[in-house]
Amino acid sequence: MSDGTKRTAVYWNDLNRSVSERVENALASEASNPDSLIWSLRQLEEMARRECDRRDTIQVLVSGRRLLGDRSTVGISNGPFSLT
To answer: Is 8 among the domain residues?
Structure first.
């Protein structure tokens, strides 16, 4: 976060669960346009790569984007998982 506060483990667990549900719902809906969800997942991945020390959170975000058809690379050069 830009205000210097640290996100808790509960936050990251909730994020994992929320992202999984949103991706599953998008995949189940034939009328769904995943572009806005993909954009949101990219933003969350950038934040997680900077702030999160949990590899599983990065994986949930990357996998969600891939399942929705996004093959782009999101890169942050200064986080704990910047090279994953």
So the answer is: no
CB 51 within 8 A of CB 79: yes
Q: Along the 84 residues of the chain, how does pLDDT read in single tens digits?
A: 455 578 999 999 999 999 999 999 999 998 788 999 999 999 999 999 889 888 999 999 999 999 999 999 887 656 565 555
Flag whether 19 is in a domain: no
Q: Does any domain span residue 73?
A: yes
HEC profile of the chain:
CCCCCCCCHHHHHHHHHHHHHHHHHHHHCCCCCCHHHHHHHHHHHHHHHHHCCCHHHHHHHHHHHHHCCCCCCCCCCCCCCCCC
pTM of the predicted model, to two decimals? Answer: 0.82
